[in-house]
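[Automated response] Your request has been received and processed.

Submitted sequence:
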Amino acid sequence: MKPALLPLTLSALIAATAALAQEAPARGHSKTEFLKTYDADLNGAVDKAEYDSVRGRDFARTDANGDGVLTEDEYVAEYTTRLDAQLAEMRARQIKQAHVRFGVMDADKNARMVRAEYEATATRTFSRLDTNADGRVDDKDTAQSH
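Generated structure:
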């Protein structure tokens, strides 16, 4: 499923969200994401003081009106900003990859893809996944090719 984005030009969206992404790093619940988020001195560990410092900074940044209390709107707005930055980054990567895929599929490199070029990739993909060559991809095919 592809996420829907507000209709902004790609370059404006990337520029705006790149700055926000640096301000508000991606969050996650895994140990790896925890370290990425809270290891401010990049020593591979997070002590309580370091954790509290980052959390305090994040609270202050999220508290848009500076009253020392987060409203639901402030909390959701901060998350929305981070999510928009992540989606914009993912979209930019995927669009770049689409250009790469087109270049690979355009066998004669004429910047136009005819049906045969388009289908060649599909044929290779299906054949790679249909490891037992029975004309269908199912659980009888080996996982090595997936």
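Summary generated for your ticket: Residues 35 and 46 are 7 Å apart (CA to CA). The chain is about 60% helix and 0% strand.
If you did not submit this request, please reply to this message.
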